[in-house]
Amino acid sequence: MTARMGTTDSLSRRGFLAGIGMTPFLTTAALAQSASAIPDDRSLGSLKDAKGTKLVLLGTAGGPGVGRKAYSTSHMMLSDGAAYILDCGLGVTNQFARTGIPFGAVRSIFITHHHPDHNLEYGPLLVVGWIQGMSQRVSAFGPPPLKSMTEDFLRGYEATIDFWAEDMKMRPLRAIDVTEISSSGPVMKDDRVSVRSVLVEHPPVNPAFGYRFDFKDRSIAFSGDTAPLPAVAELAKGADVLVHEAMYVQAVEANARAQIARGRPINYDAYIAHMMGSHSPVEEVGKIAHAAGVKTLVLSHFTPSLDSITDDMWREAAARYFKGEIVVGKDLMVI
Questions:
Q1: What digits encode the pLDDT tens for the residues 85-129?
Q2: What is the distance between the alpha carbons of residues 288 and 300, in angstroms, rounded to a whole number?
Q3: Which stretches does DSSP call E strand in the chain?
Q4: In the chain, N or C: fewer CB atoms in 10 Å?
Q5: Domains identified in the chain and CATH numbers
Q6: Are the C-beta atoms of 86 and 221 separated by less than 8 Å?
């Protein structure tokens, strides 16, 4: 078992508990209204003539919920016109299209682990991307069984693909290059970026990964879904940006109690033990960013993703231990 960071102190905030008590469970449509629209100072307009490397947060909500303001987890890095996508939660295809970057710019897709809020739209992204001009030379990287998942999906959609190809006189989408990774270490390298991975702790999913992307001008690390780990701090050592999942423990606890009060058959102790063993309290994220010495910490994959937890509350919790720039992520924010 990988060594873990210490546990967090309990949070104490007034005013948000009432909002928590009125929300349904994490995976239902009415819960998890996330933070608002694209900030003016970090808008997609900066991608139009972007030089160097930009990070776009395509989706920032944790969990496979629906009916929310924020989409499930996905990211895009754009480096001198080449696009790299990390995770494919629900909404990734439409969110990528909203960036204005052509699908033909996509070079590689990376998956951190096989939970639906990270891989559910991987197959649809391939098919829609193919229709929209994505090269069949695109490559994918992630834990097993990514290769068989890709093959099975394309086999299942063969008739759909063939009908479209026949009608539009296109070369059918048959396969893409898939590399499965099972351990920490180098993942890939091309003329723009070098990528390496680290095993993280997200039981019962195994393996699950964090990634680091070292471009010529910037380094960007991602925690993936994980309990707080020194290994993530080591991966992100000296990086320009660390994108880390964030959990607000008091809100998770209050939400579980509210569901039990409504008669939902939830084992409180088991649920909280799972959340604490698989995710990172936001204070611990601050400790990891401090240990890594990163310039900018980006909070994302919010658990839970609620309007009643304000940006200041997320930021202040992480700032107890990290004194650098802290960005509370929003969908389609450019960094």
A1: 999 999 999 999 999 999 999 999 999 999 999 999 999 999 999
A2: 14
A3: 53-59, 74-79, 82-88, 106-110, 139-142, 177-180, 185-189, 193-199, 209-215, 219-222, 241-247, 296-303, 325-328, 333-334
A4: N
A5: 17-329 (3.60.15.10)
A6: no
